[in-house]
């Protein structure tokens, strides 16, 4: 093969390699666009993203509530207007359980003298408050209250999570 033929072959190979380089650049650019698009789509589904607000699910059955709590981020509890509320943050969902203290608990309180505790159907004890009988008769008083450390300990055992993930308060969305 002559020197001229060798140069022709080298030029041909260089041109083929340049074409392949252009094709690879185009494919890499397309792949990067797809990756960026998928990342932004996944980030929009992450907690705290404005595009995907958490869902609040209120359950009436305690065992159903407990069954739903896998990988708990935080549990909050409180007694608001004689309703015991437990909220649990699990990813993009907030599960909530509510149980009201019956209105006739005040009547029992008055007729039986000062009652020390009232037990919710789930087994948690609420403790009586010192409230004057006049306010109770008029329905102006919350008769029972929660004891935060006792409630935290009870929920920790009941839900099988560490007490550090349980707080007295509420989850707002």
Summarize the structure.
The protein has five helices and eight strands; from the N terminus they run αβαβββαββαβαβ. With 173 residues, the protein is an alpha/beta fold. The chain is rod-shaped.
Key structural traits:
42% helix, five-stranded mixed beta sheet, three-stranded antiparallel beta sheet, alpha/beta, rod-shaped, single chain, 173 residues, 8 strands
In percent, how much strand structure appears in the residues?
Answer: 15-25%
Catalogue the unreliable spans.
Answer: 106-112
Task: Give me the count of strands.
Answer: 8
The biggest sheet amounts to: 5 strands, mixed
Task: Measure the end-to-end span.
Answer: 79 Å
Count of the domains = 2
Query: What would you call the structural class?
Result: alpha/beta
Shape annotation: rod-shaped
Order of helices and strands: HEHEEEHEEHEHE
Whole-angstrom Rg: 32 Å
The share of residues in helices is: 40-55%
| Overall pLDDT level | 81
Blueprint of the fold:
Layout: H1 3-43, E1 55-59, H2 62-67, E2 74-80, E3 83-90, E4 93-100, H3 104-111, E5 117-119, E6 125-128, H4 133-137, E7 144-145, H5 148-159, E8 166-168
Parallel strand pairs: 1-4, 2-8
Antiparallel strand pairs: 2-3, 3-4, 5-6, 6-7
